[in-house]
UniProtKB/TrEMBL annotation:
<dbReference type="Pfam" id="PF02541">
    <property type="entry name" value="Ppx-GppA"/>
</dbReference>
<protein>
    <submittedName>
        <fullName>Ppx protein</fullName>
        <ecNumber>3.6.1.11</ecNumber>
    </submittedName>
</protein>
<keyword id="KW-0378">Hydrolase</keyword>
<feature type="domain" description="Ppx/GppA phosphatase N-terminal">
    <location>
        <begin position="34"/>
        <end position="318"/>
    </location>
</feature>
<dbReference type="InterPro" id="IPR003695">
    <property type="entry name" value="Ppx_GppA_N"/>
</dbReference>
<dbReference type="InterPro" id="IPR043129">
    <property type="entry name" value="ATPase_NBD"/>
</dbReference>
<dbReference type="InterPro" id="IPR050273">
    <property type="entry name" value="GppA/Ppx_hydrolase"/>
</dbReference>
<dbReference type="GO" id="GO:0004309">
    <property type="term" value="F:exopolyphosphatase activity"/>
</dbReference>
């Protein structure tokens, strides 16, 4: 017997989805992810990811503004993303800008230009909202029940350190010590990668206070790392150490990866490890930031769930 029209309709209803996109305007790149959200379950299916190497942080952290050249590149990137959204049937897009855009003196010019030329509205969010969205992505991916965890998001302009008791976020703080900012700080002082500890030492007091306040009497069970640099470090575990899986790192493994990377020039990281140029120069600062935070929190393991701000943005649109 054929199913009734009502039954067919109800079955189809279970698979109704919306195609939406999320754009993360960071200090090192502008990334977009398109996903189908199945609201009844709910779950998301990633359709496509895009990345444009637009280093807004270089401008802002050295000159205080997004330069005309970068504005043009960003404009072209958003026009391309808007066209992609239309071609792939995206019904809703949310775009957020973080550290570099927060500090840019011509922030309004940037936001207005992108809206006028692409129709995409940019929200400039603070570090707390950034931490909340990343936490949302992580708790959708990992089972955090009955565990205390520390989330570390390494960006180009800032680092967000968030504490979670079970699935509940209990504290988050943003620190202006991202990878691009560190590189620009080194260049400004005519220092090299070997002097990284000098730069990081300037932030260690505030960072240590945040960690001490949230895990001294109640230590974390593990850390969770998000962002492209963490995902790259997971891949380097296989590439450099010949170990698996790539979904977590021990502190000892991370330290060994740092030693191996520091023995290679940026050019060699590109040629021998096949890292993108805009990853090869920031990967050591990123790894050392993670190492410092893990040591401060006295935790030996960091999970790498391969989700981040864009995933949190997608979930936030449900």
């Amino acid at each position: 017997m054929l199913p009734s029209l009502y039954t067919v309709a109800k079955e189809r209803e279970l698979y109704v989805s919306r195609r939406i996109s999320a754009i993360d305007i960071g200090s090192n790149a502008i990334r977009m992810m398109i996903a189908d959200i199945h609201e009844q379950a709910p779950y998301l299916h990633i359709v496509k990811k895009y990345r444009a190497a637009v280093r807004l942080g270089h401008d802002v952290f050295t000159q205080g503004v997004i330069t005309p050249a970068s504005l043009e590149i960003a404009k072209a990137t958003f026009q391309r993303y808007a066209l992609t959204n239309r071609e792939l049937g995206v019904t809703k897009c949310r775009a957020v800008a973080t550290s570099a855009s927060r500090e840019a003196k011509n922030q309004k010019e940037f936001v207005d230009l992108i809206y006028k030329t692409s129709g995409i509205k940019i929200e400039v969010i603070d570090g707390t909202e950034e931490g909340r969205l990343i936490h949302l992505a992580v708790r959708k991916e990992l089972d955090l029940d009955n565990k205390k965890s520390m989330l570390i998001d390494i960006g180009g302009g800032s680092v967000e350190v968030t504490f979670s008791q079970g699935p509940k976020m209990i504290a988050t703080k943003s620190f202006p010590m991202g990878t691009v900012r560190i590189l620009e700080n080194l260049a400004k002082r005519n220092l090299t990668e070997n002097h990284m500890n000098i730069i990081m030492g300037e932030f260690i007091g505030a960072l240590g206070e945040h960690i001490y306040k949230n895990c001294d009497h109640d230590p974390v069970d593990f850390a969770i790392g998000t962002g492209g640099n963490l995902e790259c470090l997971g891949q380097l575990k296989g590439e450099l150490l010949k170990k698996s899986p790539q979904t977590f790192l021990t502190l000892a493994e991370l330290t060994e990866i740092i030693d191996r990377l520091r023995s290679l020039k940026v050019k060699d990281r590109i040629e021998k490890l096949h890292l993108r140029p805009d990853r090869a120069d920031v990967i050591v600062p990123a790894a050392m930031l993670v190492q410092t935070i893990m040591r401060q929190a006295e935790t030996e393991k960091i999970l790498i769930p391969n989700v981040g701000l864009r995933d949190g943005l997608i979930w936030s649109m449900l």
